[in-house]
Amino acid sequence: MEFSSEPILQYKDVNAFYGTKPVLKDVSFMLSKGEFVYLVGRTGSGKSTLMKSIYADIKVNSGKAYVAGFDLLKLKSSQVPLLRRKIGIVFQDFQLLSDRTVAENLYFVLRATGWTQKGKMKARVTDVLLRVGLSSCLDKYPLQLSGGEQQRVVIARALLNEPTILIADEPTGNLDPEVAEGIIKLFLEINKSGTAILMATHNLAFLKQFPARVLECKEGRIEERANFS
Ligand SMILES: Nc1ncnc2c1ncn2[C@@H]1O[C@H](COP(=O)(O)OP(=O)(O)O)[C@@H](O)[C@H]1O
Ligand SMILES: [Mg+2]
Fold first, then answer.
1. At residue 82, does pLDDT exceed 50?
2. What is the distance in A from the centroid of ligand 2 to the CA of 118?
3. Do residues 70 and 83 lie in contact, with contact meaning Cβ atoms separated by under 8 Å?
């Protein structure tokens, strides 16, 4: 897989807390531009917490943490939207607005992130839906789509602002195996075009089928793991 060595994420001895409870403990790792990395570990080991810290949903308290050119320890709340524009986020539960069509779901995000020109917005929506293979679903409502299709819309939504990194928190957790395989193949394709991807997963079969770097979360610590595939 192609990627330059330029880091887009650098954590050094990062700690974070929920109240007084430590949840990230001396976390150190780097992600390079265009890299694909799996994040594995038991439920409760800190995977979602680590991801939340990356998109500034929780604060990091000490160490050094840089994401897409932002220093998380010095991040002002006014800068959070700017950081999030560099990061595409995909969750396990689809979180689409069910009373709006696919197109409206995407326009909603574009407007919220400062887009104003109708023509450009339309071109962008068309482009991301094409990338996820859903060009014909523009006017459908989320509940008219299968789970796999809904997740593709979420991925399209995450791509709208051309993120440098995609964070996916168990994106296939609610999908049947064959549908899940289609989704991971889509992530790999997106990765090939240069977007770095950090994907938390419990689906260890993927690690064999589509080998890549593996980070393991253990009680709030991150370790580089050999991929035995
Ligand atoms: N909002 C929260 N408040 C307090 N503790 C939390 C909160 N969210 C998660 N935790 C705790 O933080 C730890 C890591 O959780 P999490 O990051 O969700 O793990 P994972 O995603 O690997 O299942 C767990 O002990 C969990 O109970
Ligand atoms: Mg989780």
1. yes
2. 37
3. yes
**Which ligand has the minimum distance to the alpha carbon of residue 219?**
1
> Which atom of ligand 1 lies nearest, measured to the CA of 41?
22
Ligand 1 proximity of 49 Cβ (cutoff 6 Å): yes
Which ligand 1 atom is the nearest neighbour of the CA of 169? Answer: 21
Does residue 161 have its Cβ closer than 6 Å to ligand 1? Answer: no
Query: Looking at the predicted structure, is the pLDDT value of residue 2 above 70?
Result: no
- Cα 128 to Cα 10, 152, 169, 175, distances in angstroms: 28, 10, 20, 21
> Which ligand 1 atom sits closest to the C-alpha of 50?
17
* Residue 227: pLDDT over 80: no
Domain(s) labelled CATH 3.40.50.300 in the chain stretch across: 1-86+164-229
Between the CA of 84 and the centroid of ligand 2 the distance, in Å, is 19
SS3 letters for 31-86?
EECCCEEEEECCCCCCHHHHHHHHCCCCCCCEEEEEECCEEHHHCCHHHHHHHHHC
- CATH number for the domain running over 94-162: 1.20.1580.10
The answer as to CATH 3.40.50.300 being correct for domain 1-86+164-229 is yes
Q: Is 46 in the pocket of ligand 1 (CB under 6 A)?
A: yes
Residues forming CATH 1.20.1580.10 domain(s) in the chain: 94-162
Span from the CA of 169 to the centroid of ligand 2 (angstroms): 7
- pLDDT for residue 1: 45
Better pLDDT: 229 or 189 = 189
Model's pTM, two decimal places? 0.94
In degrees and rounded to multiples of 5, residue 102 shows phi and psi of -55, -50
